[in-house]
Amino acid sequence: MQVRSLFLLLALILVAAAAEAGKNKKEKAKKDGSKCEDWRWGPCVPNSKDCGLGYREGTCKDESKKLKCKIPCNWKKKFGADCKYKFESWGGCSAQTGLKTRSGILKKALYNAQCEETVYVTKPCSSKIKSKSKAKKGKGKD
Which residues constitute the signal peptide according to the record (predicted)? Predict the structure, then answer.
């Protein structure tokens, strides 16, 4: 019976701690002093070159803010880092172009980004022939 009581007490402490942590996060978000709820955010602009750390500017009525952001250096620059897509598998290789194609459907547009609903990407066909089973070298007795 004591073990059950101890377990119940521990569970209550964990629930209270989680509720307090959630409250602290909400208070932290409100500390910026802005009561504006209709923010318009621009694209992430890298500090140098075309990828890496940068910032995005936001405006709401007469207010403006800058947020830190990051553009991964291997990202498809055509789509922008704020447009997230769900891609299907690569299609077959086209003998005429030597390219494979696949499409992606918009999953999420971050910061109210203007994103295309469907995008298409291509890549060169592989010149290597991948075999699923590798030949095993056995030690036979001669």
Answer: 1-21
Domain with CATH 2.20.60.10 in the chain: 36-72
140, two tokens: 């036979």
Q: How far apart are CA 117 and CA 138, in angstroms?
A: 54
Q: Which of 20-34, 42-56, 59-73 has the lowest mean pLDDT?
A: 20-34
pLDDT score of 28: 43
The verdict on pTM exceeding 0.70 is no
CA distances 103 to 8, 39, 87, 100, 122, Å, are 51, 31, 6, 11, 9
CATH class of the domain at 36-72: mainly beta
Euclidean distance between CA atoms 123 and 126, whole angstroms: 9
